[in-house]
Amino acid sequence: MPESRSLRPLSGMRDRLAGAASFARRRLAGDFEVDEFGFDSEFNAAVLMPAALALYRNWFRVQARGLANVPSTGRALVVANHSGVLPLDAIMLQAGIYAEHPAHRNLRLLGADLVYTLPVLASLARRSGHTKADPEQAHRLLAADELVGVFPEGFKGIGKPFSERYRLQRFGRGGFARTAVRAGAPIIPCAIVGAEEIYPMIGNAELLARALRLPYFPVTPLFPWLGPLGAVPLPSNWIIEFSEPVPTRGLAEEAADDAARDELVADLADRVRDIIQARLEELVAERGPAFS
């Protein structure tokens, strides 16, 4: 028996090497598929998600809660707060649903146009299932019964100073609510605690940001002073919590005209924002110190 047990790790390693070799052969031969948005599910599962989950489990030690509120099938729109200078919260959200949800769903994230102007990053984003934050793109994904994720704060969220941590910025014009109502998709409010502390932003080098055509250029206690080492995210403690879905089915029929529809959308966006803000405050208090 001891000898048999000692052979198990070797057998597992051989299986992993064989799987990696098979994956490489298929990629070199072009034997793989992507959907109309560029999503490469095999590449995502074999390469991108394992890398993201190393951060998720070992660096940030993320606690995921309320996953039962994320449907196993069908359309839904996950709406989350955004922070942290770099959008690592988006990757952690995607990784958490993929790894911990019983259905291992792929979250199709909507990203800023800037991402798709950068050649390597644009390709990786599309392969991982992301697409531009465009209403028509979002509607097509929801109409195909995909699980879609959006961060309404955009750059205002990830680029805000550390002094404003866990205070939600404006949720745009409520476009996410309009998209959800149009598709009849439930909205799942999501509160993410932990990303605010990974790069505490104490300043913004505006001249450099304009020169590089970036929305901001962060100054943190470690970056740019320590060079590449200063770009390593701090290992804060994270909680990602999904609240109960906010239904939208049938709401489109309730609006008699454009003015009524705009009011409905604004009220819905404010309701979702209030849910997330309340949960952020409670979770920050519950978590306690960011580093422990």
Write a brief caption for the model:
45% of the residues lie in helices and 12% in strands. The protein is α/β, with parallel strands linked by helices. Helix 4 links the parallel strand 3 (107-111) and strand 4 (131-132).
Q: Notable features of this structure?
A:
single chain, 292 residues, Glycerol-3-phosphate (1)-acyltransferase, 2 domains
Overall strand count: 9
Largest sheet: 7 strands, mixed
Mean pLDDT: 90
Read across the widest sheet, the strand sequence of neighbours is 1-9-6-2-5-3-4
* H/I helix tally: 10
CATH class categorisation of the largest domain: Alpha Beta
- Radius of gyration, CA atoms, in whole angstroms: 21 Å
**CATH homology group of the largest domain:** Glycerol-3-phosphate (1)-acyltransferase
Question: How large is the share of residues in beta strands?
Answer: 5-15%
Shape: globular
End-to-end distance: 41 Å
Secondary-structure class:
alpha/beta
Low-confidence stretches: none
The CATH topology of the largest domain is what? Glycerol-3-phosphate (1)-acyltransferase
CATH architecture of the largest domain: 3-Layer(aba) Sandwich
Tally of individual domains = 2
Residues in helix, %: 40-55%
